[in-house]
Amino acid sequence: MVGHLVSKRAPVTTTQPAAVVLSRVTRLFDGLAAVSQVSLEIAGGEIVWLRGWNGSGKTTLLRLIATAISPTFGGGSVLGFDLQKQRSAIRARTDLLSHETRLYNDLTAAENLRFACRLYDLDLRLVEPALERVGLDEVAAVRAGNFSQGMRQRLALARCIMRAPTLILLDEPYAGLDVDARVVVDDLLGAAHGKGQTIVVASHEAPPPHLVDREVLMDGGRRVAP
Amino acid sequence: MILRVAQAVAAKDLRMEVRSRSAASTVLPFAATMLLAFGFALGPDRLLLTATAPALLWLAALFASVELCYRSYQNEAANNALEGLLLSPVEKGAVYLGKAAAAFVQLMVLLGVTAGIVIVLFGLPVGPSPVLLVLVAMLGIGGLSALGSLLGLLAVRGRTRQAALPVLVLPLVSPVIIAATRAPTGLTQGNTSGIAGWMGLLAAFDAAFLAVGYIVFAHLLED
Q: Is the minimum CB–CB distance between B159 and chain A shorter than 8 Å?
């Protein structure tokens, strides 16, 4: 793993409270630590890149922040809400995007987004612009099951754009994406700064320096640097 | 809020079933074959057929409920959509109610088609109280839907996967099957005595399963 990132982004100037505070968080699966004693603080509006090889614990860490799983030991807060006691509040303000797109194969692209609108109590008129934004407006009536993995990820991105959450967690966002779709991810990262959104990206790839504030290296379930 | 989410989940499940027809294509051929086989085995004895038809119908419904609820959660497990439901800021009990409602509609349709086959194939009488028969069917299917929609989640979350579903469903649903089988036997012959008791039992089980499902579903869904 290479050295730390020197960001070319303007420094985050925000009065927001810390978006993520993790204190000695450990997560065990069948007695094995996927994440071990990780402490991490991420400021509101910051874009942080978690980098590590497969099995380094970065995906588990994202899932802990998203409240998809609970820490076995340790604790913390996300957007000022307790990680274990105020999950609903965190979930309402957070989106986790991964290669598991959480789409329904037998629903069309537009129907998938409309269903998300109903779950998150969003205006259905957001669907069309979100599909346009990711370049899927012409296949809005096609079932997600007929999409390539890249198209599915773009559709998941459209859902995230529609929701405009305060905290976005991206797990290997460039995996399986073509050049056009990568641009959409970069746009999302770029636009986040202006909107005050906090983004945490987990990837084995090197971060694009102009888009990221800080890099954190993970290995063997531990935070190794900085 | 609860109604809106339940409605969205039910509409989504029904739309997906209409598109894929996965439950119908599995359950209907099974039910038709089973009824045909029993029809030939039992012979032309009208009384015997009348006495056994409700049990055959509910066996088909039971098989359908296990299959349908498992498939419903398989759809959620694909692409990890289940996690999307978990991470959405909605009352998880509402998701359960939506899934149970969708299962109820699908099972009612399947039971209606199967009952149609029985009536036509065996020439069985509906009796003088078809409304009561439909009410019994709704109460019985209500119990199967409520229980199947709760335990179906375990089939995709638990380590034992699909094998766990029949093992869990069959013993728990026995009272519903017994009551739903006994109730229509008299009804088709115009005898309504004792029907209130069977229907009360079915309603009590439905209410209990729904209440437990509403409360427990969130805990089963969480990590």
A: no
H/E segment holding residue A95: strand A94-97
Residues of B in contact with A143 (CB under 8 A): 19
Range of the domain at A70: 20-101+169-225
For residue A102, give the nearest of B4, B79, B223 by CB distance: B79
Position A2 confidence tier, pLDDT thresholds 50, 70, 90: very low
Residue A24 belongs to a domain with what CATH number? 3.40.50.300
Q: Are A168 and A201 in contact (CB under 8 A)?
A: no
Residue of B nearest to A95 (CA): B87
- Is A174 near chain B, with CB under 8 Å? no
Establish if A97 belongs to a structural domain: yes
For this complex, say whether ipTM is above 0.95: no
The domain of B80 spans: 2-221
The answer to whether residue A123 is domain-embedded is no
Q: Is A189 a domain residue?
A: yes
Please answer yes or no on whether A111 and B15 come within 8 Å at the CB atom.
yes
Q: Report d(CA A159, CA A137) in Å as an integer.
A: 13
Residue A199 located in a structural domain: yes
Q: What is the pLDDT of residues A9-44, one digit of tens each?
A: 555 555 567 899 999 999 999 889 999 999 999 999
- In sequence order, the β-bridge partners of residue A216 are A50
Count of domains observed in chain B? 1
A122 Rama sector, left if φ>0, alpha if ψ -120 to 50, beta otherwise: beta
Q: What is the amino acid identity at position A196?
A: G
Determine contact, residues B96/B8, Cβ cutoff 8 Å. Answer: no
